[in-house]
Structures are given as structure tokens and as C-alpha cells.
Specification:
This protein is an alpha+beta fold. The chain contains ten helices and eight strands. Strand 1 (about 95-100) and strand 2 form a beta hairpin. It is flat and about 105 Å long.
């Protein structure tokens, strides 16, 4: 067998082996790797590279090293799931760098974290002033998580006592110009509805790169041709306008009638419609 053919076969074999090793180790991004995971992956990559090009070394030795290494790593991960001491030793623990608005200088030195690095990490969290930070912890992955002081946090709908329904994830119903029937059926819709919505937008199915339906049942599309402007869905705004018109008409009827009972009925219903508008306005706007 030619050397170059053997190298290709050895490389493909190592690639397959590393693929299964990565599947066993779980779905972790590079930023989420602990020191133990990081060292493991570097070692496996180095072993695979050596075994791919060193034709003088028996291929079985490389396979044996990778299998043993992955097996030991997997065993440690299982133990870490049930034992906090082992988990803290392998994955490490978070270090508090700011507490009650004060920088913990000793912890900065312990983690070899300079003031410049701290300020840089804070800026990535939109905290440009240290005085705005209530609490900050450096995670084992090197990420800094920040809790701003109460008066510096963005206002949410909950702070305003505005109740909104929970939203479900958008369903992708069109991809590469083709209808995806399974997600469409998941939200209780059918291709006929989808084609009707596309007609409203003036868009042909084959011109749609991606189409999604949100939790409110509105279809949004992205076309292959980015120069074409697709109108935004207006059903929700039209519904809100109709409700406001209905409420205004009821108030007008109450003012025009001379019958006291009818006047009270119109006024009472106008207030009910106004209450409905207050509840649904955050959703429909």
C-alpha cells in the first residue's frame, strides 16, 4: 500500500474516532469548557494528528490511547454529576470579583485578573461604571456574570405591572422555498393557510428563503432577493384599531342617546372594551 493512501485511511479513521469521542463528551461550546475538558481535547487532537502521519507507529496504539482517554474522561464526568467535591475539583468554582458594589482585590489577584480585564469584561455586559454593579462573579469558563444595582437595571413589563402571555418559539414553516409540513402541523395550520398568507404578502413560495410563524400566528419571510421589500404583518395593528374604534363608537352612542338605560348600557360596554384594550395593547402593538 502506498504511503499516501495509508495516511489518508489513518486520517479518516482518526476523524471518525474523534467524532464519536466528541459525541460522548456532550454538547459544549469552546467557551463552556473547563480546564479538564480543554486539556482532554488538546491531547486527543495531538494523539490523532501523530497517528495520522506517523506510519511507523502501530495504528492500534493510537486507537487504544483515545479509547482509554475518552473512557476515563467519561467516567470522571459521571462521578462529577453526583459528587460536588469532584465536580468543583474538575470544573472549578466561580469567584466573586464584585460584592455589594465593592471590588474584591484579593480575589482579583487570586485569579490573576487585572483591573483592565475586569473593566473590559464589565463593558461587554453594558456596565461601564463599576458603581452601577451590585455583584459580579467570574465563572470557571472565564465568563464574567454581572448583576446591576436595582436602580440601574432595565425596566421590564413586570416592573410596570403589565401582564403578557407566554410566547412559544417561532416555527420555521418554509426553508429553501419548500414547505415544512411537520412544524406547520405542530401549530395547527396547513399549507392552504400558508399559501393564503403568502398571497397577502405578494410573495411566491419558491422565492422564500426562510419563513417563520410566531406565537401570534403571524408569518414573516426572508426572500432570496434582499432588494425586495416585504410588507410587515398588520393584522394585529388592524385588530387593535378596530377595538379602539368600537370603544369610541360606544362612547359616542352613549352621548347621543337620551334614553338613560341605553346610555348606561353603552357606557358600561365602552368601559369593558377599554379594559380589553388595556390588556391586549402590549401584545397587538
Amino acid at each position: 500500500m502506498s504511503v499516501w493512501i495509508e495516511i489518508i485511511l489513518r486520517t479518516l479513521g482518526m476523524l471518525v474516532l474523534l467524532f464519536f469521542a466528541a459525541k460522548i463528551s456532550g454538547k459544549k461550546q469552546v467557551a463552556q469548557l473547563s480546564y479538564f475538558d480543554y486539556v482532554t481535547r488538546i491531547t486527543l487532537g495531538g494523539v490523532a494528528a501523530i497517528m495520522a502521519v506517523d506510519v511507523d507507529m502501530p495504528y492500534f496504539y493510537g486507537v487504544l490511547v483515545i479509547v482509554v482517554w475518552v473512557g476515563v474522561t467519561y467516567l470522571f464526568d459521571l462521578i462529577a454529576l453526583k459528587n460536588k467535591v469532584v465536580r468543583d475539583f474538575i470544573d472549578g468554582k466561580g469567584t466573586v470579583l464584585i460584592k455589594d458594589g465593592k471590588i474584591m482585590e484579593d480575589n482579583l489577584k487570586k485569579e490573576q485578573f487585572t483591573t483592565d480585564m475586569l473593566l473590559k469584561q464589565l463593558r461587554t455586559k453594558n456596565a461601564f461604571n463599576v458603581a452601577d454593579v451590585e455583584f459580579a462573579v467570574l465563572e470557571p469558563t472565564g465568563e464574567l456574570n454581572v448583576l446591576l444595582k436595582p436602580d440601574r437595571r432595565p425596566i421590564t413589563l413586570k416592573d410596570l405591572n403589565v401582564k403578557v402571555p407566554d410566547e412559544s418559539e417561532p416555527q420555521t414553516v418554509i426553508m429553501d422555498g419548500k414547505i415544512l409540513h411537520e412544524p406547520l402541523a405542530t401549530i395547527g395550520l396547513n399549507p392552504a393557510w400558508l399559501r393564503t398568507e403568502l398571497d397577502k404578502l405578494g410573495v411566491a413560495l419558491e422565492n422564500v428563503f426562510l419563513g417563520q410563524v410566531d406565537s401570534n400566528g403571524q408569518l414573516t419571510v426572508d426572500l432570496y432577493d434582499d432588494k425586495i421589500q416585504v410588507p410587515e404583518p398588520v393584522e394585529m395593528q388592524l385588530l387593535l384599531s378596530s377595538l379602539k374604534k368600537c370603544q369610541a363608537d360606544l362612547e359616542l352612542f352613549a352621548l347621543e342617546t337620551e334614553d338613560e338605560k341605553v346610555k348606561q348600557m353603552f357606557g358600561k360596554n365602552a368601559k369593558k372594551v377599554d379594559e380589553v384594550i388595556r390588556k391586549v395593547a402590549p401584545i397587538l402593538q
